[in-house]
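Troubleshooting: if your tokenizer reports a length mismatch, compare your output against this known-good record of 253 residues.
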Amino acid sequence: MTSFFISVCKDSLFNLFILYKIIYNFAKNIPLPLSQNITNQIRIPENNDWVIFILLGCIFLYLFMMNIIEREANLKDFLLQKYFDASNNLPSWVITSCVTALTLSVLISQYIPIVPKYIADLQILGYQLNKFGFCLIAIVFFYLIKSTLGFLFFQSIGDGKRWSIFYFTSTKFYFVLSFLLIILCVTHYYFPIDRNKMFLYYLLFFSFVFIFKVFFYLFHKNNILPEKWYYKFLYICTLQIAPLLLLWKLLFF
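Known-good structure output:
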């Protein structure tokens, strides 16, 4: 009885082995249709460490400005200080402009369609500019040209003394704007948002900021724009609207 049971088990195992070899050879030589639709679902997370490094650098610049350049002034005193009581206005303006350019480049670089070929072909030490680098250089040149033309504008109308009051006042505006840009950068890169839908909200936000800036310049108590209305109109059209349209065309077309 025992030998009969062992013989049956051997025959069953042999038959299972034969069946396994048949199925194995069939699957090896003729791939199953379902096996062709299997995709790798592993998601490689996006590395945004560069954003943190840039934002931390911007915060360090502001800490340096507030503690060293502004002589340990607090936020309220800095925003509400009067022109004749302030000192080191030019370094504060430069630092604020740098932070604004960096944060703005971080935010909008993800929406740049392509880097133009004549820019991509340029190599510095074997490196090519990515979208962030292209955006940063474009915005820096935009502010440099805009500031130079603004200085020449005030000098040409014989109101050069008002230029220092102008950039002193604009520093406060861009200081607040840069903090809003830092918040938007953190939200954009580290929160689960639909970036395609957010682009429309960014457009509305920057449109509101631009309109608010124009009224801020027009009605500020420091009277930073020329007194004659046609000079104010000329400044807004030639040094606010026109450069912004050129920057938009350079980055997005």
